[in-house]
Amino acid sequence: MRRLLKRHLPDHASLAANRWLAPFGSTLFHPRLWHLNRHSVAGAIAVGLFCGLIPGPFQMLGAAICCLLFRVNLPLALFTTLYTNPFTIVPIYILAFSLGEWALGTDSGPFTQPPEWGSAGFAAWLGELTHWIIGLGQPLAIGLIILAFALAFSGYLLTRLAWRIYLTHHWHRRHSRKP
Prior knowledge:
Layout: H1 2-8, H2 12-16, H3 25-28, H4 38-51, H5 59-70, H6 74-80, H7 89-104, H8 122-177
């Protein structure tokens, strides 16, 4: 498993030689941020899944900060945040909104589309858009938090389980070869 991950992730030495990353040397190049073991990989998956739901362009920054705090694999956590992209973000946010409504015990009906630009003008449209965003606010925020924790927890457990199955399989295969 480690060889497979090392083949696809950038190596520590090439990044340390990068002139843009050199000022962060002692912090960013801590060995535990680049080590691949079942703890750092599972933690990186959890961090990436959690931070992938941070709204806006701050997902990778949040993942990098969490990696520094928890000392988990940095490149894998940054890569894992990419599960939210323009194709997946709308269904994920609709799911988060539904989870938020369920947690709050409210039901505002189906997910409504944002208001369209009408002939009433920019000010009227902006007012309608603001009202629409406020209506989504609390259920969406609560739903994003619930979904982020659920994804992080399940990602951590599934990664640990997959690593364990992989090790067990190879252990049995190695012992079956011995005479």
